[in-house]
């Protein structure tokens, strides 16, 4: 197999080119204009930022890509799916509020923002994963699957369950509906937090398998013999009383993310951009971002998300550790910053499984722009 091409630009600027100019030059050199955007619906998958976390990508970056697609007469929108956990992006309304708070709106980005799995996280497309080892039918946000072209923009950082969060994490986990996220995080089935349940019976109305009943205390309970783990009760509850066990091993979680990524990317054009800046130790889904563990590196772009993740992690592992950071405080077991940050993780599992699924190539040629 030939090496995949990954394009890179550093963060140095001058009077002629600022970072936004350099981003446009980078994606142009990487071949984004070879995609036919004419009258095509184009989804740009991006993380709008959990309120309180300041490491999310600035909306200025997304506008560069939006303007480019608009110039090609594309029908472009920014999108993400709701989160499984309780926070500022758990439903479509709060998710939009969070996006607006962090500067994402049609005036700053040049396009509309669509929460792909709807108000309650239940608007999903069931996408077959024919070669999936763990996932046979991925639950992907409907608006993402309605798009003709898929573009991902991700903030590259550490992650407490997957080692790092890059292109594949942004695609696989990020594009899953709330039920899809439950499937990736859990090998079990949802359960009721009785203290939060108000007995409204919304969960039971959305259960197709009559698995939910109510006791004398009017609290819901789930019969796991009847429950199929579809997760629709999670999206239907307005009180966060339905929860999912996060009991899947990190290795299986990484493989499921790869399989969800395959479901998103298969059978349509796609392109990916990674911003290796503000490299915090944990996921951007936290309501805070810790001191970066290594210095800023640059911006990377490729048609191959596997090669892109490999290039980013290799570049990160060449950097020195920032004094006083979380990584600096850890006992270093190897020459890998992300494994040293979270020793219970192994990011290579996702990469290797993605290669096995035919998503991309670990071998890459790095081209500096």
UniProtKB/TrEMBL annotation:
Gene3D superfamilies: 3.30.70.20, 3.40.50.11440. It comes from the Bacteria. InterPro entries: 4Fe4S_Fe-S-bd, DUF362, PSI_iron-sulfur_center. PROSITE patterns: 4FE4S_FER_2 (PS51379). Residues 188-217, 218-247 form the 4Fe-4S ferredoxin-type domain. Keywords: 4Fe-4S, Iron, Iron-sulfur, Metal-binding. Pfam families: DUF362, Fer4_7. PANTHER family: 4FE-4S FERREDOXIN-TYPE DOMAIN-CONTAINING PROTEIN, PHOTOSYSTEM I IRON-SULFUR CENTER-RELATED. Ferredoxins are iron-sulfur proteins that transfer electrons in a wide variety of metabolic reactions. This is Ferredoxin. It comes from Terrisporobacter glycolicus ATCC 14880 = DSM 1288. The gene is rsxB_5.
């Amino acid at each position: 197999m030939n090496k995949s091409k990954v394009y890179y630009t550093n963060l140095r600027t001058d009077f002629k080119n600022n970072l936004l100019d350099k981003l446009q030059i980078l994606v142009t050199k990487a071949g984004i204009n070879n995609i036919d955007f004419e009258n095509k619906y184009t989804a740009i998958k991006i993380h709008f930022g959990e309120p309180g976390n300041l490491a999310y990508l600035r909306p200025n970056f997304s506008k560069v890509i939006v303007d480019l697609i608009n110039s090609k007469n594309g029908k472009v929108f920014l999108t993400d799916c709701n989160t499984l956990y309780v926070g500022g992006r758990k439903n479509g309304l709060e998710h939009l509020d969070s996006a607006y708070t962090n500067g994402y709106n049609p005036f700053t980005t040049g396009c509309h923002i669509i929460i792909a799995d709807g108000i309650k996280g239940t608007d999903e497309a069931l996408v077959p994963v024919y070669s999936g080892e763990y996932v046979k039918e991925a639950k992907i946000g409907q608006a993402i699957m309605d798009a003709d072209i898929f573009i991902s923009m991700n903030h590259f950082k550490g992650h407490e369950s997957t080692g790092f969060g890059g292109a594949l994490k942004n695609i696989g986990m990020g594009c899953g509906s709330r039920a899809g996220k439950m499937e990736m995080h859990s090998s079990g089935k949802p359960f009721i937090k009785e203290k939060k349940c108000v007995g409204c019976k919304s969960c039971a109305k959305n259960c197709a398998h009559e698995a939910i009943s109510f006791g004398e205390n009017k609290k819901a309970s789930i019969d796991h013999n009847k429950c199929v783990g579809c997760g629709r009760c999670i999206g239907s509850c307005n009180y966060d009383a339905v929860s999912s066990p996060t009991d899947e091993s990190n290795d299986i979680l990484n493989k499921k993310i790869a399989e969800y990524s395959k479901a998103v990317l298969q059978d349509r054009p796609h392109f990916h951009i990674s911003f290796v800046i503000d490299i915090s130790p944990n996921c951007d889904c936290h309501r805070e971002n810790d001191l970066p563990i290594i210095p800023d590196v640059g911006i990377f772009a490729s048609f191959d998300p596997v090669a892109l993740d490999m290039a980013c992690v290799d570049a990160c592992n060449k950097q020195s550790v920032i004094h006083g950071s979380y990584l600096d405080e850890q006992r270093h077991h190897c020459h890998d910053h992300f494994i040293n940050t979270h020793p219970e993780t192994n990011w290579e599992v996702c990469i290797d499984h993605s290669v096995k699924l035919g998503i991309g190539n670990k071998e890459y040629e790095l081209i500096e722009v």
